[in-house]
Amino acid sequence: MKIRSFFFQLFETVKKHPLRAILVLGFFHGLIYVFMIPLWWHHEEPGHFEYVWLAANREEWPQLGEYDNDLRKEIAESMFASGQENLFNVSPRSLDDDPIYIGGSPVGRKGVYYWLASWPIKLVRDQSVVLQLYITRLISLLLFLVSIWLAWLFMGELVNKRHPLRWMLPFFLALLPGYLDNMTSVHDDVLGGVVAALFLWLSVRGIKQGFSILSFIGWIISVVLCFYSRDTTVPLVFLAPLVPI
Predict the structure, then answer these.
(1) Which long-range contacts (CB under 8 A, 24 or more apart) does 94-99 make?
(2) Are 184 and 136 within 8 A, CB to CB?
(3) pTM score
(4) Predicted confidence (pLDDT) per residue in 127-173, tens digit
């Protein structure tokens, strides 16, 4: 009876606060991906982490072609120590190379994500490169949760509060393996997903309800972020003039 009562209370809580339940689900599901995916196995993760690390440890913003070979050696050595096969065919013999190849480097791309992720790394710059990687992944996890919240707000503009699609879309995102894999990695795609969701929510809200001064400022900020966050979000900038029209 106690078990039955527990599940009944749990169901009632979820029913009353679906967004909270989805965010909790997304958080714990995301944690699994943060720590389950082997070191440096996300798409181009070593290079994206290097960009974050350079932004955290250099006084000037990293420029195209810039790298840190000591950091790359630490990354390569952590690949060997993990006992996992690395995706870039890094071998002990390559540690004498300059530069050591750890996959493609995104240095020189739009830098908002790397700037944002660099702030926590500044606090732990003396810690191991593995700890810094996991901290950066956790920053991506927080952005993933923001994207779920924005999906909830977006659907709230399209359907009424009791419509099942209101919770089905963010619930689906919280469980979608491909989305989780990408949104818990060290990659600028993470911020791209967040700013795209922000733009879509504020755009639909503006079309339906009209813009106040604050909402219009927020919408303009979302457009700017779309331009400076990721190449894949730039097309939204060209769609932006349709919103006030």
Answers:
(1) 98/69, 99/67, 99/69, 99/72
(2) no
(3) 0.90
(4) 999 999 999 999 999 999 999 999 999 999 999 888 988 899 999 99
